[in-house]
Design brief:
By secondary structure, the protein is of the alpha+beta class. It has a 7-stranded antiparallel sheet. A 4-stranded antiparallel sheet has the order 6-11-8-9, with no helix packed on it. A hairpin with a 4-residue loop joins β2 and β3.
């Protein structure tokens, strides 16, 4: 038979043990992995994800040069540096950090590339002719996309407020 002090200690011990054991609810499961960052993608040795081709230590080309990912410095504003005849999306304001340079006309899905640039744009540089339409994808069909704004040719936008981190698609009308 258990003595009185031991009987009182058992509920305390069970409570402490319950607090130390991992929960088995769905909330305790591991979250899904985040998409790779641009820095992680450019640092990859060997084959690159989704058919990218390394063109420099900090740049990877996709879609036969139609999209070029460049990692950048997040600490300093460098000004708009998008190559002529391209339009560029930056993942920080004032053209800092990672840049995605796109060329050509038509529709561009920013979620297509292995670093998932959709919902990360904070500044844009449209260094080409035509008009650039900027969209937020909502729902399951592109017919529900919302036009955020449009840029005239050769326009730089250092801060996309109030549309930061919601751009999903671009359409260059040539």
């Amino acid at each position: 038979m258990l003595t009185a002090p031991i009987r009182r200690a058992i509920p305390v011990g069970v409570t402490v043990l319950a607090l130390l054991l991992p929960a088995t609810s769905a909330a305790a499961t591991d979250p899904p992995p985040h998409p790779p960052t641009a820095a992680a993608v450019t640092a990859t040795q060997g084959p690159l994800p989704d058919g990218g081709t390394r063109i420099s230590p900090t740049e990877i080309s996709y879609d036969n040069g139609r999209a070029i990912l460049r990692t950048g410095d997040a600490s300093a504003a460098i000004g708009p540096d998008c190559p002529l005849s391209s339009f560029c999306v930056y993942d920080m304001t004032n053209y800092r950090s990672t840049r995605l340079a796109l060329t050509g006309c038509g529709f561009f899905d920013l979620g297509k590339y292995p670093f998932y640039f959709n919902d990360r744009a904070e500044s844009l540089h449209f260094n080409a002719s035509g008009v650039l339409w900027v969209y937020d994808h909502r729902g399951t069909e592109h017919s529900t996309d919302v036009t955020l704004f449009k840029l005239a040719a050769y326009t730089a936008k250092p801060d996309l407020t109030p549309y930061r981190n919601i751009t999903d698609h671009l359409y260059r009308q040539c």
